[in-house]
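Page 47, continued from p. 46.
Same chain as before, 489 aa.
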Amino acid sequence: MASVTSASPNFSHADIMRVLSGAMLCVLLAALDQTVVIPALPAIANDLGAYKQLSWIVAAYLITSTISTPVYGKLSDIYGRRRLLLTCIALFIVTSVLCGLARSLDQLIWCRALQGLGGGGLMALTQAAIADVMSPRERGRYQGYISAVWALSSVGGPLVGGFMAESLSWRWIFWLNLPVGAVAMWACNNGLRRLPLPKLRGKPRLDIIGALLLGSALSVLLLAIGWGGNTYPWASWEIIGLMALGVVLLLLLVGQEMCAADPLLPPRVFASSSYNASIVISTSTSMLMFMCLFSIPLYFQLARGTTATQSGLYLAPFMLASAAGNIVGSRWGRRLGGMRAELRVASALCCAGLVLLACLPPDTPKWAFIVAMLIAGPGVGGCLIGSMMGTQNALPAGDIGSGTSALLVLRSVGGAAGSSLAGAILATGLASVQHGAGTLQAVPTTMHGLHFGAVYGVAAGCAALSFVVAMCMPDKRLRESLHVSPVSE
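Result:
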């Protein structure tokens, strides 16, 4: 087993800003890819002649990025962040070109899966790099920069995706990654040079069996969610069998991680109740967020007759409110020294907004829908940043990469499950629209079969779970130093 320690230099504000510059561009690249695709889904369906598997354009990326995230996190704890991050960006750029050249929906889904292998390291390695240079409490001082980039990409992504799908071609949403990725590589190469290199004690071992079990379990479970209610009935033996196989693989993964000499997901990181609570909140929030990201543009295009560009504009209030909640939540945590109160308020706001969305009648004014999004949005952002800060606060320096990756793995699982579940709920209605209209365009009179309210109702249930967990979690103070090991709870 390899023991990893790190000798970190003192970082000045200028050093931190150089690291942040590279991190912000990676966040921009990752966030754009998550938001720019959604408004273009109807255009992709019409061009490639398929609609039942639309959610897999999102889910395929999330599955492979989820599988690769803990591998990157573990490798970065052993070998350092910078070179791995540059490799991830390069892979992301190459596979973006392949996505833009896809000639069928199946090809696009497979290319998106390959793209996820590069995207899996973008968020995990940048978050770990940020944790290398600033303490959990000081992170609130700089989080505004990251949140500003997230806000820009969250608002600009749907607008750009809608505009390109409507005025140019949906293929441009992937080719856009080329110039952004090139600048991100340059910034990371220069900004992350001063990050400390881990010092190895013993020969490092990568948990290959754990990685294979994790990938297999997640793929099987997400296939079951994606096919349930769409390709097969939920009560069919195919779906039940996939669910059972996924559970067995997860149990085998737990056994492997407990016995492995150098586990991919170290069981010790789950010893803290604060860490576990943050994991649950992060996963459930990611699930509801992707349900909203998937359904809101489709709702406005198909039920309200807007264009792709306009649907991206209507998504903007939700994403702006989420970014605002991210900024306020990080500053709240820094001021009060803990994240429990922030997570309670954020999850309550999120639940209230989503319940309102679920209860709105089909003919409700658009402004009422926007108000509900403005209530839910800050809660989503607050839960995401609160769970991230709470997670890294509970980890010792040597487990930052692995522990952060575990959070992002489960966050990606929640996102993939959310988009797949939303796609399954809406599949029947989308099929009826396609059958009656010939193309997947706005046909408001036929949209009563779409169960958008059910999507937001399930999302509200996820928010309620986050609130219950936040009410029960301990109030752990944010550390003010980088490398003090947290006290066990």
